[in-house]
Structure formats: structure tokens, C-alpha cells
Design goal:
heterodimer, A: 87 residues, mainly alpha, Arc Repressor Mutant, subunit A, three-stranded antiparallel beta sheet, 4 helices, B: 142 residues, alpha/beta, five-stranded parallel beta sheet, 8 helices
């Protein structure tokens, strides 16, 4: 990782570019509820978690679930490697 | 979802599922719509690791019915001779053997760097992936 801080929210235009979709498709996805967004005054802002797939290759809930496992994994894999070497 | 996806689970997935209940591994292990396999050798090592990490035995007993148990009858030396070319650590060879014997389409592991995924796909048509990536794949089919 380069240490670059990613924005926590995006504009519909930015999301259209990231996902390689048209702006109208993004607005359509928002109105159908398929893309979570917040209307602030007259504009929309889309949280980074809504487009997690474009960044991580995973939906946000799956990304978080994987992160949860990765916290404990070194301990598990270390013990497993020891046991395998004894089998 | 139909019971069409046959998965062989590496032991790190099963053990992780007992420690982290909200992790992706736990979600896979508790999926009733998948055909999940482990081998007799996996079960043996899982039980030893569980004891060393002080995980209650009943954690495995509770989910035991979720798995098909594959009997690997060859000794570990023979298994290593046959399958260690698919791993960077010969001690992981029995996992590939189990995946092959169970006729699984996916091998689910967090230890991706220890397996030679291209060779496994080429020779056995088994896809090596992580729990979250497999779950993402399932979503993409719907």
C-alpha cells in the first residue's frame, strides 16, 4: 500500500468513472436501492463501502468478514504448520 | 442455491471458523447449501490444533455433520510423493489429496501461497480460493 488516504465518500460522477458505468446508470442504481447513497441537499454522496467491490474485489460485508479471519490467522496457521510437520 | 458446489476445506478454514464466529470461514463452514469435505488426516490435525489452542472439542463435533469425511488410506509418505508437487510445503500435500479424492471443484484455504493453484487447476480442475472470494463468486451467480 502506498499510504494514500482514500476518500470515505464519492460523488456519483466519481463512482461512474471507477465502475466504468454511465452517470445515469449510477443514479438509476441509487434510485433502485442497489447502490447505497446519502442525499445531502440536492446532491448524492456514496460511501466507499458501497463500492468496496471495485477496490477490494469483494462486497463490503465479505471484505469485513475476511478481515475478521485474518486477525486470528497467523496463530492458527503457525500451530497448523507445526502439527503438519509432526504428522 | 442448489447443492452443486463441492468444496474441500483446508484445516485453517475450519479452525478459524471456531475462533471467529463472524468471519468468512465461519460462514462457509455453517453453509447448509454446499457440499463440504474434509479428510481423515484433516480431522486429525484439526483436533490436535484445537487442543493446543484450547478450543473446545465440541466445536468440531457440532459442525461435524456438515462435512463429508474423505478417507485417505495411503500413508503420508505416499501422499507426499504424489501431491507435494502441488504445494510449496510437502506437509500440505494431504490437503490436495483430499480435494482430489473428494472430487471437489473448489479448494478453500487462507494459505494460498502454499499451493500451486495453476497446476491444481490444470491437473484436477480444482479452483483454489479463499472463503470470501468463493462467497463473492456465489453471489455473482445469482
Amino acid at each position: 500500500m502506498s499510504g494514500t488516504v482514500l476518500p470515505s465518500v464519492y460523488t456519483p460522477e466519481q463512482v461512474a468513472t471507477i465502475l466504468q458505468l454511465s452517470k445515469s446508470t449510477i443514479y438509476e442504481l441509487i434510485s433502485r436501492g442497489e447502490l447505497a447513497a446519502k442525499k445531502i441537499g440536492k446532491v448524492y454522496r456514496i460511501p466507499a463501502t458501497s463500492i468496496s467491490f471495485a477496490i477490494t474485489g469483494l462486497d463490503n460485508d465479505l471484505y469485513m468478514a475476511e478481515k475478521e479471519d485474518l486477525k486470528i490467522l497467523p496463530k492458527v496457521q503457525n500451530e497448523l504448520a507445526k502439527v503438519r510437520s509432526e504428522l | 442455491m442448489t447443492k452443486s458446489s463441492k468444496l474441500f476445506l483446508d484445516s485453517d478454514i475450519i479452525i478459524s471458523s471456531f475462533i471467529s464466529k463472524t468471519g468468512a470461514a465461519s460462514f462457509i463452514v455453517n453453509q447448509k447449501d454446499l457440499i463440504l469435505s474434509i479428510s481423515n488426516l484433516s480431522e486429525k490435525e484439526i483436533r490436535i490444533v484445537m487442543a493446543r489452542l484450547k478450543i473446545e472439542r465440541k466445536a468440531l463435533d457440532k459442525v461435524s455433520d456438515n462435512f463429508i469425511k474423505i478417507g485417505l488410506k495411503e500413508n503420508t509418505t505416499t501422499i507426499k510423493e504424489k501431491y507435494s508437487k502441488y504445494t510449496s510445503d510437502p506437509n500440505d500435500a494431504h490437503i490436495v489429496a483430499g480435494a482430489v479424492k473428494s472430487k471437489s471443484k473448489f479448494l478453500i484455504s487462507y494459505n494460498l501461497k502454499h499451493y500451486k493453484s495453476e497446476a491444481i487447476k490444470r491437473d484436477f480442475d480444482i479452483i483454489l480460493t479463499t472463503p470470501a472470494k468463493f462467497l463473492q463468486y456465489l453471489r455473482s451467480r445469482n
